[in-house]
Design a protein that fits this description.
With about 110 residues, the chain is mainly alpha-helical. Helices cover about 60% and strands about 5% of the residues. A 3-stranded antiparallel sheet has the order 1-2-3, with no helix packed on it. Strand 2 and strand 3 form a beta hairpin. It is elongated and about 60 Å long. It starts with a helix and ends in an 11-residue tail after the last helix.
């Protein structure tokens, strides 16, 4: 099997790789946004020293932190906007490196 046949075989998996990368980067964006919000509310050292995390994040209700605090506002900005921005950064930044194509050399002329 030569390299052009291998490239064609691998190109068939490109949509599946893109979907998998999109879902993984979405999860990473949401997870990162939640911790950024905890850092803003409590501070970096307190989050790590007390091992703070969200215990419950119901839609339309108060979010409960592991220390017993209830967060009642700020959901839209931190859970949607920040997560979307991080998702786009995580998704589109590495794509040129993953799906790069080598320039063909003009050896025919």
């Amino acid at each position: 099997m030569n390299s052009s046949q291998l490239k064609i075989k691998l190109a068939r998996f490109a949509p599946a790789i893109f979907v998998a990368w999109a879902l993984l980067s979405l999860y990473g964006g949401i997870y990162s946004a939640v911790y950024l919000w905890l850092f803003q509310l409590y501070g970096f050292s307190r989050v790590f020293s007390e091992h703070l995390h969200f215990v419950s994040m119901p839609k339309g209700g108060d979010w409960i932190v592991s220390n017993g605090d209830r967060i009642t506002e700020g959901f839209f900005i931190h859970h949607f906007l920040v997560a979307m921005i991080l998702w786009f950064v995580f998704l589109f930044t590495p794509l040129p490196f993953v799906f790069r194509r080598k320039k063909d050399t003009l050896s025919d002329n």
